[in-house]
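Chapter summary example: a protein plus 5CA.
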Amino acid sequence: MHAWPASEVPALPGQGRDLRIHDTATGGLVTLDPGPVARIYVCGITPYDATHLGHAATYNAFDLVQRVWLDTKRQVHYVQNVTDVDDPLLERAERDNVDWVALAEKETALFREDMTALRMLPPRHYIGAVEAIPGIVPLVERLREAGAAYELDGDIYFSVESDPHFGQVSHLDAAAMRLLSAERGGDPDRPGKKNPLDPMLWMAARPGEPSWDGGSLGRGRPGWHIECVAIALDHLGMGFDVQGGGSDLAFPHHEMGASHAQVLTGEFPMAKAYVHAGMVALHGEKMSKSKGNLVFVSQLRRDGVDPAAVRLALLAHHYRADWEYTDDVLRDAVARLDRWRAAVSRPDGPPAEALVEEIRDALANDLDAPTALAAVDRWAAAQQEHGGTDIGAPGVVSRAVDALLGVAL
Ligand code: 5CA
Ligand code: ZN
């Protein structure tokens, strides 16, 4: 699949910082040392509805990860998937009486537009589940040959007990795992499974549903976790730097994915850090396509809201926090954008070097965007109150805000 166009990332004077970030698997901060090419996999959308602010907040977090790395002059290999065949997509297509392929294409196209408007850096490889099927089938066959997968009425399940490291991403107890598995696409109550948590690797063709040739697996379609594993291993290999997504993906998705990959390769861990963004809520509940309490990025754009203000609304919250979207959040962001734009519109101003370092320090410290915004606020307030004589300082601020925060002033 094609991704979306990249916005330019200006180079900044001085030195970038190594990123320290919270890793769910170790439960603490880790300083990543990616080498010249940093590798990141971020779980993509299931395209049955438009991009909402919760999605945008999560993609914003991983965009910042890349901007910190780019500032250290590293290259970034960024891979993202599109879950373009899965139960929720098929169910929505059926409900609305539309073709599931057309629905997925339409919503993926809108997602690209939203990401472009928000200045999110595009992945180098943007891969759909459907196009990944030829790579998924041999992985499931290998898991079965290794005794890590078994058949139940034609469906093929992964045996979580085959991975000695199972549980080391999310650290949940069995009861919590069972509950979340039922909520998030699993089928812990299906009779005949070896372990209730075992996730499906390959689902045998169901009448009226799309299916593909699975070689020795028979016709069917892939399970959710193996989709991301196949794409990540194909384009990044084992031991990549960051596996990213919202906190609702820690279990079962990232736990199961890590186990699949670890059993397949015999290597541990799949990723050096499992990074999870908090959940954005609306009216007291997590924004979710299934509940319908959504604020769409595309609707805000249609309402004439500047995408840079949307981005500032996201950046005003720490990526790990759960937060509630209200009209005030957007109003504050619009006001901040106006103040910043006014402050950089003059040829001179207060010195900017220290501000660039403050933004760098804040982001390198577990992506502390709110602290970075506060630093820019102080510079903008000083500019407004008494100005300054440094020629070119506003340009430096503008480039730093663009390069490190993805906000075009
Ligand atoms: N296709 C799978 C991942 S392989 C999926 O979870 N798709 S999704 O469309 O449901 O979500 C896309 C990303 O947005 C995921 O990282 C998810 O954790 C994140 N996300 C979903 N809802 C919210 C929310 N309310 N707040 C923050 N992030 C969210
Ligand atoms: Zn995923």
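Key point: The pocket of 5CA (ligand 1) is lined by residues 43-46, 54-55, 57-58, 81, 83, 228, 245-246, 248-249, 277, 279-280, 286-288 (CB under 6 Å).
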